[in-house]
């Protein structure tokens, strides 16, 4: 396309600019995508737009590698991240990207199709060191679900020369749980631990009134369940089923606390609510290793425009 036609196509939203000199088509197939799928498409397009500039020594890493592995997208971290050896010269890909100058060992990188990325374990460790902990734990939980070797990730965390955030990454890897089924469930469990709740379990099995139930997060031994409700639970039929489910669980002796997305922020109010629930039920709170490690670290992401 000549420049005039290109600019007209951008104004008419038939084409969108991905980076300098690279554009993507707005196809009809993208209409009707939910917001998450739309963001996923945008992130993958941005990665695709810079991959041709990377050398054989480079690989996608951090949140970009996480997206390529199918891990949860991290709000506010849509710019492509890649790692290259500290001795590599500057090159064109650095514009519109975040470049990490670090030596990634051959065993810490792999190929997804024909795209070079850090391994699942290295990707998780890098994200836990980069992201605020409440976002990082969602990555770690999801990585376990898709096959991450926790022991290998812990080993990688110890062998990376840069010691910054090593303890934080170690604590989050130890806290990660394969039973968390969504990023929001992961964040809720994280805040429960920071608030002092002990012996948390995911997907706790309960048999009540002849039916099988699974609770998102429970406090072992106290019959208190914490449930995160996504938007899919707010259809009339889903609400009716949830009401019947909660009635059955309460009749079986369970106390159920429900949360939605807006309940998870700000974190200080959320943790005050979680501590109040414990006080109301005379449940003792303690101090976990995760709390001790994070006592001087911000636990949540800064607001982004």
User: How many domains make up the coordinates?
Assistant: 2
Helix content: 40-55%
**Could you give the distance between the termini?**
34 Å
- Describe the main β-sheet briefly: 4 strands, mixed
The stretches of 5 or more residues where confidence is low (pLDDT under 50) are 301-305
Give the overall average pLDDT. 88
The side-by-side strand order for the widest beta sheet comes to 8-9-10-11
The portion of residues forming beta strands comes to 15-25%
The radius of gyration over CA amounts to 22 Å
SSE arrangement, N to C: HEEHEHEEEEHHHHHEEEHEHH
Concise description?
With 305 residues, the protein is an alpha+beta fold.
Description:
It is a single chain. With 305 residues, the protein is an alpha+beta fold. It has two domains: 49-175, no CATH class; 183-294, Endonuclease, Chain A (3-Layer(aba) Sandwich), CATH 3.40.960. 41% of the residues lie in helices and 18% in strands. Strands 8-9-10-11 form a four-stranded mixed beta sheet. α3 packs across α4, α4 runs antiparallel to α5 and α8 (183-195) packs across α10 (267-280). The longest helix is centred in the first third of the chain and has 17 residues, at 35-51.
Fill in the keyword field for this structure.
305 residues; alpha+beta; Endonuclease, Chain A; 2 domains; 4-stranded mixed β-sheet; 3-stranded mixed β-sheet; 11 helices; 11 strands; 41% helix; globular; disordered C terminus
């Amino acid at each position: 396309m000549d420049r005039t036609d290109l600019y007209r196509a951008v104004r008419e939203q038939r084409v969108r600019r991905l980076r300098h000199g690279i554009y993507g088509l707005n196809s009809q197939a993208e209409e009707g995508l939910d917001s998450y799928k739309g963001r996923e498409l945008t992130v993958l397009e941005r990665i695709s737009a810079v991959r041709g500039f990377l050398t054989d020594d480079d690989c996608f890493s951090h949140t970009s590698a996480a997206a390529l592995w199918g891990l949860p997208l991290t709000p506010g971290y849509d710019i492509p991240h890649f790692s290259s050896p500290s001795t590599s010269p500057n090159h064109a890909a650095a514009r519109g990207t975040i470049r990490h100058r670090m030596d990634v060992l051959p065993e810490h990188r792999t190929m997804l199709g024909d795209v070079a990325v850090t391994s699942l374990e290295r990707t998780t460790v890098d994200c836990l060191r980069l992201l605020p902990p409440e976002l990082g734990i969602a990555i770690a939980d999801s990585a376990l679900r898709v096959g991450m070797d926790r022991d290998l990730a812990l080993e990688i965390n110890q062998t990376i020369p840069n010691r910054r955030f090593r303890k934080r990454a170690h604590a989050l890897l130890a806290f990660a749980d394969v039973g968390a089924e969504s990023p929001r469930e992961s964040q809720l469990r994280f805040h429960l631990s920071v608030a002092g709740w002990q012996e948390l379990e995911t997907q706790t099995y309960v048999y009540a009134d002849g039916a099988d139930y699974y609770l998102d997060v429970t406090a072992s031994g106290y019959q208190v369940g914490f449930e995160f409700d996504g938007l899919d639970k707010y259809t009339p039929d889903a609400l009716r089923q949830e009401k019947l489910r909660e009635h059955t669980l309460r009749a079986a002796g369970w106390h159920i606390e429900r949360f939605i997305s807006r309940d998870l922020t700000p974190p200080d109010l959320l943790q005050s609510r979680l501590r109040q629930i414990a006080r109301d039920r005379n449940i003792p709170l303690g101090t976990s290793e995760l709390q001790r490690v994070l006592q001087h670290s911000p636990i949540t992401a800064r607001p982004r425009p």
